[in-house]
Design goal:
7-stranded mixed beta sheet; 193 residues; 34% helix; binds 5-O-phosphono-beta-D-ribofuranosylamine; 7 strands; alpha/beta; 6 helices
Length: 193
């Protein structure tokens, strides 16, 4: 990935839109000795995102941008990320699609987590679609972000068994437990640790 770890932790921003449980788990991971990253910044397109509370609790700088004008929002975003020396970006439940130009500026340094076994079930409403298709397994995937939705190179995946009793929300919960473990592992893998 071209990022050197050394003693210094890699300055990372997390982008969220909602609950932020992956954000929280990444913060927890960043505070462990084995973590090569520090979480220094959080970005949200939604000022009411519950996850923004963790910014307050853990004293992490934040920026809210509505993305109504994507061009302008991304311009502002690039400048604030630069000012904060951000080197890596972890998307975690971020509901906006970043432009080609933005992705180019952080080439190979933007990761995303998706609640399915990609390349299956890209996009939204994943768990319901998985259940509708009577799949036996679902899971989660951490992948690099490219210009196409949920289509970048896969870094790591974790399978989850679906039971007959599973509903959309029980499956989401089961997968989320694994997401919290998978994202830190994927970061270690990307950095060859
Ligand atoms: C997760 O399931 C993630 O895979 C998906 O959105 C959800 C975000 O959950 N992209 P949280 O905000 O991290 O709790």
């Amino acid at each position: 990935m071209g990022l050197s770890t050394g003693y210094r932790k890699i300055r990372t921003a997390v982008f969220i839109s909602g609950t932020g449980s992956n954000f929280k788990s990444l913060i927890k991971f960043s505070k462990t000795n084995k973590s090569p990253i520090s979480i220094d910044f959080v970005v949200s397109n939604n000022s009411k995102a519950k996850g923004l509370n963790y910014a307050k609790i853990y004293n992490i700088k934040k920026k809210v941008l509505n993305f109504k004008n994507k061009n302008l929002s991304e311009k502002k975003l690039l400048s604030v990320l630069k000012a904060n020396n951000i080197e890596m970006i972890c998307l975690a439940g971020f509901m906006k699609i970043l432009s080609k130009n933005f992705i180019k500026k952080f080439k190979g340094k933007i990761l995303n987590i998706h609640p399915s076994l990609l390349p299956k079930y890209k996009g939204l409403n994943t768990h319901q679609r998985v259940l509708n298709n009577k799949e036996k397994y679902s899971g989660c995937t951490v992948h690099f972000v490219n210009a196409r939705l949920d289509s970048g190179k896969i870094i790591l995946q974790k399978k989850v068994k679906i039971s007959k009793k599973d509903t959309k929300s029980s499956l989401a919960k089961k997968v989320l437990v694994q997401e919290h473990k998978l994202y830190p592992k994927a970061i270690l893998k990307v950095l060859n640790l």
